[in-house]
Amino acid sequence: MRGALGRAPLVALAAVLTLSACGVPPSDVIEAGEPASGVLVPGPTPSVPVVVSLYFLDDGELTAYPRRIGDPTDLGTVVGRLFDGPTAVEAETATTELPRLTDAPKVTAGSGNGVTVGLPDDAAPLSRPAMLQLACTVAHASGAFTALPADAQRDGAFTAPPVGAQRSPAHTNVRVYGGGWTMTQSADACPAPPQP
């Protein structure tokens, strides 16, 4: 009971200060044009589909497979699609040395041309072909997105990005780590993606 009585003057003081409006003098209505109408509800910005080269193996040879990607700003999406493996159509000629993951990889683009990919702790160290698949995909994806033309084929067939849209993968390094291991791969030996 004693605490409630002690708080009553504080509540009254807070009410007086709030009602006094801190000394702001009252004013008349100020005309400033039409009142706002409607409610703007921010929504997701639709992304423009792009074509990115994912690198798989075709008879053991590193080969670029053009793939439509919906979010051109998320390198993690590109890497995730690579770890998902070839599509049913791509699997007619493509294989992968990358493992199926229990969790999504954590992708961080560093300053310059470095990219770090964190794999779940249960992932084993990657083979050299798997590291090349990852390094080449990242090198060509980070900065080499091409918007699909408005008349792009809707049946799943994709065209490769134009020559001017590709940047050289030279000097791109990918660092991959898992539970107790770390590997680094340069993209200097990557084949060029297909040209239109």
The first-to-last residue Cα distance is 83 Å
pLDDT < 50 stretches: 144-168
Number of strands: 7
User: How do the strands of the widest beta sheet line up side by side?
Assistant: 3-4-6-7
Can you walk me through this structure?
This protein is of the alpha+beta class. 21% of the residues lie in helices and 21% in strands. The strands form two sheets. It has a four-stranded mixed β-sheet with strand order 3-4-6-7. Strand 1 and strand 2 form a beta hairpin. Helix 2 runs antiparallel to helix 3. The longest helix is centred in the first third of the chain and has 18 residues. The radius of gyration is 28 Å and the shape is elongated. About 13% of the residues have low confidence.
Index terms:
196 residues; four-stranded mixed sheet; three-stranded antiparallel sheet; 3 helices; 21% helix
Secondary structure elements and pairings:
Blueprint: H1 2-19, E1 50-58, E2 61-69, H2 75-84, E3 106-109, E4 114-118, H3 128-141, E5 146-147, E6 173-178, E7 181-186
Parallel strand pairs: 4-6
Antiparallel strand pairs: 1-2, 1-5, 3-4, 6-7
